[in-house]
Amino acid sequence: MSSRLNPYISFTDNARAAMEFYQSVFGGELALNTFGEFGDKDAPGADLIMHAMLETPQGFTLMGADTPPGMEHKPGTNFAVSLSGDDADDLRAWWAALSDGGDVSVPLEKQMWGDEFGMVTDKFGVGWMVNVAGGA
Fold first, then answer.
1. Among 15, 46, 101, 122, which residue's CB has the most CB atoms within a 10 Å radius?
2. Residue 79 is part of a domain; what is its CATH number?
3. 81 lies in which domain range?
């Protein structure tokens, strides 16, 4: 896969409906994962979307999720740029560069789904999410 750059949109409890709508507009394959799949299936919000990815026949990829409890959802700033793939060296180097002078909200480290993942707002106020597939 190497690396990809995609928009990532945050929603408030309606990511499933939004992503299904985008699928109806653009077509393609939609993958949805809930918070409950990676944690307590009976917890409040377990049925909300932790990660959604729409891959269209035209080659577009759109990602999204419901804003997790405890995180602020602010319309107008409810998006980030997602860098993902399996080219660990490039992804880690981009993470380091984007983090320099930025504000790291989630350190780049192994997550419960098995990949390395981190979130940072760069020094220009742009949100970035970096996911290294199968990271150590």
1. 15
2. 3.10.180.10
3. 3-132
- With the CA atoms of 107, 104, 83 and 131 taken in that order, what torsion angle do they form, in degrees rounded to the nearest 10? 10
Pair of tokens at residue 9: 């949109």
Percent of the chain with pLDDT over 90: 49
Q: Mind spelling out the 3-state secondary structure of the chain?
A: CCEEEEEEEEECCCHHHHHHHHHHHHCCEEEEEEHHHHCCCCCCCCCCEEEEEEECCCCCEEEEEECCCCCCCCCCCCEEEEEEECCHHHHHHHHHHHHCCCEEEEEEEECCCCCEEEEEECCCCCEEEEEECCCC
Of 42, 67, 39, nearest to 52 by C-alpha is: 67
Residue with tokens 């990660």: 51
Number of domains in the chain: 1
Read off the tokens for 64.
């999204």
The yes-or-no verdict on residue 63 having pLDDT over 90 is yes
